[in-house]
Model the fold of this input.
Amino acid sequence: MTLRNLKAVPAEESMNEAGAICVRNVLKRYPGKHAVNALEDVSLTIREREFVSILGPSGCGKSTLLRIVAGLVPHNEGEVLVNNKPVKGPSSEIGVVFQSSNMLPWLTVEKNMMLGAQLRKLPAEQTAAKVRDLIKMLGLSGFEQNHPHQLSGGMRQRASIGQILALDPGILLMDEPFGALDALTRDLLNVELLRIWQERMQTVMLITHSIQEAVFLSDRVLVMSGRPGRILHDIKIDLPRPRLPENIKGNPRYGQYIAEISKIMGVY
Ligand SMILES: Nc1ncnc2c1ncn2[C@@H]1O[C@H](COP(=O)(O)OP(=O)(O)OP(=O)(O)O)[C@@H](O)[C@H]1O
Done:
């Protein structure tokens, strides 16, 4: 296979079908003395159950884009649809995981994971059973009664993901969820994230700075330009699933995708 076969296609080509997330011609301007256009003419579609990562230089508007899709930040022009409905604010269909943990320090892991469902007045017994399963699935058994400061960074991030998964969102938006972790923990959590995704098959939009992480995890990788951010490349990652480090990292295509994306982004 040559690099030309890697199917880096212009972003607009993926726009012809409905998706779980549809962003069309979005412009975002932050007003004020130092007004900036963070995003200009951004369009993308993420299909149901697809895992899509977004890469781009620092300050190109990746977090802004994620917050717009999450309904946390308004956009100025264009259209943002989630499950074919315009985004008007945060929604229970979407879960958001940020780089730093969302957990309340005075609550235990278990109580933190129950909290969102309690606030939404979901049935307590059902939530408790779900949280028990998630604790097991996320390797947190034995730490249910610990407080966040009694966990390692990786465990805190796993528990934060658990908090969101306890609400069963169909769409998961993740903004550098493993950015603050060491490389080894990050690799382990990538494998766990894939396992969870393969079991639950949510639609995922992941913002990351790591080309390796994006290629390992994703069905597609979108590459943004510098600010004002636009989607410049839409690269289909044609690697077999289920993906495990031992059957992916030695695959020559994995290395080729990384080389191709590094070249596009001007990092070698
Ligand atoms: N609340 C805000 N008010 C004003 N400007 C903002 C605000 N948030 C972001 N910006 C600006 O918008 C641009 C895009 O920021 P954003 O955080 O979305 O980029 P990013 O690609 O996520 O950056 P990084 O990779 O460094 O985290 C930057 O120039 C930033 O300074």
Remarks:
- The pocket of adenosine-5'-triphosphate is lined by residues 30, 36, 38, 56, 58-64, 227 (CB under 6 Å).
- Residues 49 and 200 are 9 Å apart (CA to CA).
